[in-house]
Write a structure and sequence with these properties.
Shape of chain A: globular
Distance between the termini of chain B: 53 Å
Structural class of chain A: alpha/beta
Number of helices of chain B: 10
Largest sheet of chain A: 5 strands, parallel
CATH class of the largest domain in chain B: Alpha Beta
Oligomer: heterodimer
Largest interface: A-B, 14 and 15 residues
Number of strands of chain A: 28
CATH topology of one domain in chain A: Rossmann fold
Distance between the termini of chain A: 57 Å
CATH architecture of one domain in chain A: 3-Layer(aba) Sandwich
Shape of chain B: globular
Number of helices of chain A: 22
Largest sheet of chain B: 6 strands, mixed
CATH superfamily of the largest domain in chain B: P-loop containing nucleotide triphosphate hydrolases
Helix content of chain A: 40-55%
Radius of gyration of chain B: 19 Å
Strand content of chain A: 15-25%
Strand order of the largest sheet of chain A: 4-3-5-6-7
CATH topology of the largest domain in chain B: Rossmann fold
Order of helices and strands of chain B: EEEHEEHEHHHHEHEHEEHH
Strand content of chain B: 15-25%
Structural class of chain B: alpha/beta
Number of domains of chain B: 2
CATH architecture of the largest domain in chain B: 3-Layer(aba) Sandwich
Strand order of the largest sheet of chain B: 6-7-8-3-9-10
């Protein structure tokens, strides 16, 4: 094969040459796992690429890819790349109206979609998308009477004819590919403003894939389950870039509903999931344990206590007591092994989570039963790749060390800046946004605020725009504090104040389910939310939580000043109906501060109790008022001395 | 397997069917026909004789008068196993599945008529039994894929919600690869979303396999949306027959459904 192994098509052909019979793609179809080897994948991609060429697809054109994780859609991305085209995977669950923006922005002429549902949506969008010419589909079900669309089989058949008529065409096209060609365009989610097309080169994704593969020693024998949206940068890195770089096997689930079953059958060695999936899995296990027999429950509880004590340390390779080692071995036989098997995690070498803060108990649970769960940090603009936690160096509240080939530094405003081969080339048609994001020295501004801890691990604390400063000049990161508080099951919401003030104070919302349960077990009678929130026992309970957070913060020199000095437990739940939360349940800090100004004055004014009357909207639309006398509680803080001792 | 949608010849003709249980006349002198590949609905108020009609077609009840012509063969009555062998499959108003068996096994029972191996061969999995099972399993998997129930393949039917059980029942009926599929209130007791799913599946079955479908349904909206032609029964008598639009405009039908001012 001509040319260096610096583009994905050339890497794919290299695998077809070196390990032709190694499984590259699997998909469960009609109840049976079907396998395609690297040679077969290369043949499929070749037929597809030639098919696209025969229909007029040319270098530099975009190719929309819409659907669930199907082998043919992954192959379609490679086929476009073979011709020097740029795949544009799109979120398959978006409505037709949302398609219109991206289809127009990317000037899509060719689209390969999964099934009737997606064909319908694209056809619906067609009247508003002048550039759209051709639509191809994978699953023919229900599409027999559609006109103007073509099946995948037909496209490949045309491709094979074209290939015969134009010998050498495919090879020449692949050889033309250059490493600084754009390999994919991924759209940002657009939570702030319109989505932007992030253009990544072959070089960037190859660098990111190589770095990750070397960091975790990925080999062709590895296996991943490809089930996250194809339009998301994480899936593109794990299921395409690293797949074609390392030559391992990707497995496509039978359907969205069968992912957990398929996970168990495949037993991947390399796994990625956002925190909520790990949380769901754990909840399922816990519910089933509740129904188990008394003996089994006892065994589970006993050995989970052992795992909590020493499991995570064992995984980190730290020395543990001989007694614990023996107990852990028995527990592994009776509990952890079977549990890993039920979770589909028996073979996992490396599992990553990212995207949101993961709770300490959750994180520790998986690590303690021997699942090597780690965190990473990155964004669409950095190929999902910036910092990774090394084996044996996993910390709960950091995102790890800068990845191989990535430079990370902290800007003057506390913002995390990164530079490296994996950076985006540009935002599509948005030179203004590109110039804003990448500075003169080539650093990408992530928009996240963070710092390095004593071991050189990066700690992300907040979005940079939310970070403020205390009157004394120390950094104040409200989201970080609030998340720490919310990890306690008793705390539903927290709102921290401190920007421009001399200390940090907070409002706490109790979780009525969790605290109510706690009160019942103690025989503590209460009549409703406000009553429960006002109980001195509950205040003491929340105070414990706050002080635990303070103890942790006190030990951290950078966040030492962010300890919560005074707080109060709110008499009503913050509610989107009262405009205190957004519909996605994020605190509207400014609004809350204004509405409860009298409480903030009381917190900072040294009062010990404050009367408040609050307007509320009931679910039936009526409104009324709630009045309460709220006690203000002083929490113990931990001085630098105590912190030093603790550290 | 792949048939073209497009209504064809008469596949089933019922002429002058009368059915009585003692003094109770369930059906009196009902005649209608079903064309190949069409979706034919039977509607009517409670006790109109809809399920009785289905049971006559299927051979569970034997009418005292009238003739049934299926595929050109005229007879006074059907026998259920005979009906099944000739390509008539059905689902029931009250789900009739094996609750303790998995979805897969339940659907496999739908293949029973097509199994050729003897009991002995099947018991010891000798000769053609094993090969046959593979073929049948492949067919069953195709249906599982078609009705999108892969995620419950191994789940005992008794643990499934009602809407899914209905879908499994449809799957079992399809496993017999019927030419004529009788559905007794396929959407009864379902929520709106389940109903929409079921509608889509009924239409897909009809389009993909070209199966002729006779269905009984209470939900008028559903019937009018998916049927090609509708028969209306009231007190055992046929009071209307035609396309959904014709039936909707039929005064006798309106009276039966809305009541008449006396």
């Amino acid at each position: 094969m001509a040319g260096a192994l610096d583009t994905f098509p050339r890497l794919m052909l290299e695998h077809a040459r070196v390990r032709p019979d190694h499984p590259a793609t699997r998909e469960k179809d009609l109840g049976i796992w079907q396998t395609w080897t690297w040679r077969q994948v290369a043949d499929e991609v070749r037929a597809l690429a030639c098919g696209l060429a025969s229909q007029g697809y040319r270098r530099g054109m975009h190719l929309a890819i819409i659907g669930d994780n199907r082998p043919r859609l992954y192959w379609s991305m490679l086929a476009a790349q073979c011709l020097g085209g740029i795949p544009v995977p799109m979120y398959q669950d978006a409505a037709a109206a949302e398609f219109v923006y991206v289809l127009n922005d990317a000037e899509i002429a060719f689209a390969i979609v999964e099934d009737q549902e997606q064909v319908d949506k694209v056809e619906e969008a067609r009247s508003q998308v002048a550039t759209l010419e051709r639509v191809f589909f994978d699953d023919p079900r229900g599409l027999r009477n559609y006109e103007g669309v073509m099946s995948f089989e037909r496209l490949q058949a045309l491709g094979r004819e074209y290939d015969r008529a134009h010998p050498g065409f495919f090879e020449a096209e692949v050889a033309k590919g250059r490493t600084d060609d754009v390999s994919v365009m991924l759209y940002t989610s657009g939570t702030t403003g319109k989505p932007k097309g992030v253009r990544q080169t072959h070089g960037a994704f190859v660098a990111a894939a190589r770095g990750g593969a070397e960091f975790d020693q990925l080999v062709p024998g590895d296996s991943v389950l490809s089930y996250l949206p194809m339009a998301w940068v994480g899936d593109h890195l794990f299921s395409l870039a690293q797949w074609v770089y390392a030559g391992f096997t990707i497995n496509c689930p039978e359907s969205g509903d069968t992912v957990m079953i398929d996970l168990r059958e495949i037993g991947p060695t390399y796994y990625f999931a956002p925190p909520r999936i790990f949380e769901n899995l754990l909840t399922q296990v816990m519910i089933r344990m509740e129904d188990a027999s008394r003996l089994k429950r006892w065994i589970f509880r006993t050995f989970m206590a052992v795992a909590r004590r020493c499991g995570a340390e064992k995984l980190d390779g730290k020395p543990i007591a001989a007694g614990d080692r023996a107990l852990y071995a028995i527990g592994n036989l009776l509990v952890y092994g079977p549990l890993r098997n039920v979770l589909g995690m028996s073979r996992i070498r490396v599992a990553y989570t990212a995207g949101a803060a993961i709770g300490p108990d959750l994180f520790r649970f998986y690590r303690s039963i021997g699942v090597n769960l780690k965190q990473l940090y990155g964004s669409t603009e950095t190929c999902a790749y910036c910092c990774l936690q090394p084996d044996g160096g996993v910390k709960l509240d950091t995102v790890g060390l800068p990845a191989p080939g990535v430079e990370v530094k902290i800007g003057d405003n506390g913002e995390v800046l990164v530079r490296g081969a994996m950076l985006l080339k540009e935002y599509y048609k948005r030179p203004d946004a590109t110039a804003e994001a990448i500075d003169a020295e080539g650093y990408f501004h992530t928009g996240d605020a963070g710092y390095f801890d004593a071991d050189g691990h990066l700690k992300i604390i907040d979005r940079a725009k939310d970070v403020g400063a205390l009157a004394g000049g120390a950094m104040f990161a409200p989201n970080y504090l609030e998340n720490k508080l919310k990890f306690f099951p008793h705390v539903k919401e927290a709102v921290a104040f401190g920007h421009g003030r001399d200390m940090v104070c907070a409002f706490i919302n109790i979780d009525i389910g969790s605290v109510g349960n706690w009160a019942e077990r103690r025989g503590l009678a209460y009549s409703g939310y406000a009553d429960l929130a006002g109980k001195p026992e509950v205040r003491a309970l929340i105070r414990e939580c706050v002080e635990k957070v303070n103890a942790e913060l006190g030990a951290d020199p950078a966040l030492h000043d962010s300890q919560v000095h005074r707080f109060l437990v709110l008499h009503k739940e913050l509610d989107p109906d009262d405009d205190e939360l957004t519909r996605t349940r994020k605190v509207r800090r400014g609004f809350v501060a204004e509405k409860y100004a009298v409480l903030i004055d009381a917190l900072y004014g040294g009062k010990s109790v404050q009367h408040i009357v609050t307007q509320v909207k009931f679910e039936d639309g009526r409104s009324g008022t709630v009045a309460a006398d709220l006690a203000i509680i002083d929490a113990r803080t931990f001085g630098p001395d105590a912190a030093r001792k603790a550290a | 397997m792949q048939a073209q949608r497009g209504v064809g010849e008469v596949i089933l003709r019922l002429e002058g069917i009368s059915l009585a249980f003692g003094g109770v006349k369930a059906l009196s002198d009902v005649s209608f026909d079903v064309l190949e590949h069409e979706i034919r609905a039977i509607i009517g108020p409670n006790g109109a004789g809809k399920s009785s009609m289905l049971n006559v077609i299927n051979g569970v009840y034997h009418p005292q008068q009238g003739t049934i012509t299926f595929r050109g063969e005229k007879r006074q009555q059907m026998v259920p196993h005979e009906a099944a062998r000739q390509g008539i499959a059905r689902t029931f108003q009250n789900i009739a599945l094996f609750k303790g068996m998995s979805v897969l096994d339940n659907i496999m029972t739908g293949r029973n008529l097509r199994m050729r191996a003897t009991i002995l061969e099947q018991a010891i999995r000798l000769g053609r039994a094993g090969r046959e099972e593979l073929e049948h399993r492949a067919k069953v998997e195709e249906i599982i894929d078609f009705l999108q129930i892969q995620h419950i393949r191994k789940t005992p039917v008794g643990r499934l919600p009602y809407g899914l059980q209905k879908r499994v029942e449809l799957a079992r009926a399809l496993a017999a690869e019927p030419d004529l599929l009788l559905l007794d209130e396929p959407m009864a007791g379902m929520n709106v979303e389940e109903k929409q799913d079921m509608c889509r599946f009924v239409l897909d079955v009809n389009e993909q396999y070209g199966t002729t479908i006779v269905l009984i349904e209470h939900d008028m909206g559903v019937v009018m949306d998916i049927s090609d032609r509708v028969v209306v029964l009231d007190y055992g008598r046929k009071i209307g027959d035609g396309t959904p639009d014709e039936v909707r405009a039929n005064q006798a039908v309106i009276d039966a459904y809305l009541g008449v001012a006396h």
